[in-house]
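[job 4471] stage=fold_predict status=RUNNING
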Amino acid sequence: MTRLATAVQRAAEAAVSQGAAGWMLATVTAVGAAGTVDVATATGPALAVRYLRRCRPAVGDTVMVATSPAGNWLIIDALAAGPGFVHLARSADWSLPASTYTGIPWDVQVDGADTMKPAVGTPTRIPLTAGSWLVHLQQAWPSGSTQARVRVRRADGVEFQASYMPTSAGGQGDSGTVPIFIPSPTYIEVQLYSTDSITVPAEYSTVLVERVRG
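[job 4471] inference complete, writing structure tokens
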């Protein structure tokens, strides 16, 4: 068989495969405007494929593509890349210095993805990939806490205030959720502040970070 005949046969096979009703997996290679992306498939590239409003795929995502006999393609959603959350806590009391924002040194992974737990040596840093995240915080304060604050700080210095308590008689606290956008892979810290130095009981701090869109 000549090269031309082989190329024609392969093109015909690709056309039949891509034109038939069904579904396939593809990898997003570029995100365009107006709800379209370019993808790479086992039979070659496809440009400007539309996706459902809920999907919003990113470059590198493996996506499910539905195809129709008329040759229409539609991206249904991206495949899950593992647990998109981490739940962290403390195993022991720790000291918060006076008038200094200090990251909570997490040392217990309650649940979630191993890739999102702080690394040994940097227990305050929660690594995150690019995308939108929700940081759910719960913090109680021991007696003696004054002007007590909780904030989330991104590695580039952008800060998100989460809660505030003027004083605590012991065990008083608050919870809240902070939405954060991460433009590129980095880390965040959950930081505490009190004008007086205090010992923070282990059970007083917990955080759950979950992906909204990545």
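[job 4471] summary: The first strand starts at residue 22 and ends at 31.
[job 4471] exit 0
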